[in-house]
Design a protein that fits this description.
This protein has about 210 residues and is of the alpha/beta class. The protein has helices at about 35-45, 135-145, 155-170, 190-200; strands spanning about 10-15, 50-55, 75-80, 80-85, 110-115, 150-155, 175-180, 205. It has a 6-stranded parallel beta sheet, sandwiched between helices. β1 (about 10-15), α1 (about 35-45) and β2 form a beta-alpha-beta unit. The longest helix is centred in the last third of the chain and has 14 residues, at about 155-170.
Length: about 210
């Protein structure tokens, strides 16, 4: 009897590799497109690939433009807690919301859209920013028997970190590939995110 081939790792979750987060976009992350070759290569090494996609209505409450007099990257208090006010980005149906043209979509078993409720932002792939309204990703992964997750994408210190922290809180084994992610680093947000992920038991690789 021939031995079974070693099983592939469970799931790769690729966070928000969209035009608006890449160079030339309205909320561009420095070198955001530099991660594409690594992410595309990683996809072949996992049983399942999930892509997330920011998908905001034009009237989204996280856009500075929807708060008269507010500057992008300023903070306000929302019913669910502090909220960064962002430049308008990833508006539903816009080119900016599209995945980057060089991102391979062939192996994506699921595309999860988030942030479409105008009243609340959604950094995490698992919960909206109230940290309790689920996106449904947990149920999908549990139903598929996928318990070990690798997370990569944009941006390390916001949507990647929030996703990793929520996944760890839910009991998944979580790795974040820092080499396949890039950060905004807003007022020390990268160091803070790295510290929180380490404290939560998230494995960080580069």
């Amino acid at each position: 009897m021939h031995p079974k081939p070693e099983a592939l790792p469970d799931a790769l979750i690729v966070i928000d590799v969209q035009n608006d987060f890449c160079p030339g976009g309205s909320l561009a992350v420095t070198d955001g497109d530099a991660i594409l070759p690594r992410i595309n290569a990683m996809m072949r090494a996992f049983q399942s690939v999930v892509l997330t996609q920011d998908w905001h209505p034009a009237n989204h409450s996280s856009f500075a433009a929807n708060h008269p007099g507010a500057e992008p990257f300023s903070m306000i208090e929302m019913p669910y807690g502090p909220q960064v006010l962002w430049p308008v980005h990833c508006v539903q149906g816009s080119r900016g919301a599209d995945f980057h043209a060089d991102l391979s979509l062939d192996r994506a078993a699921m595309i999860l859209r988030k942030g479409y409720d105008p009243k609340i932002d959604s950094y995490s792939a698992f919960f909206e920013n109230d940290r309790k309204t689920p996106t449904g990703l947990e149920g999908y992964l549990r139903a598929r028997g996928l318990s070990e997750l690798t997370i990569a994408g944009l941006a390390t210190d916001f949507c990647v970190a929030y996703s990793a922290l929520d996944a760890a809180r839910l009991g998944f084994a979580v790795t974040v590939d820092l080499g396949a992610s890039r950060a905004i680093d807003l007022n020390g947000s990268l160091a803070d995110a790295i510290g929180q992920m380490r404290a939560a038991g998230v494995r960080l690789v580069d």
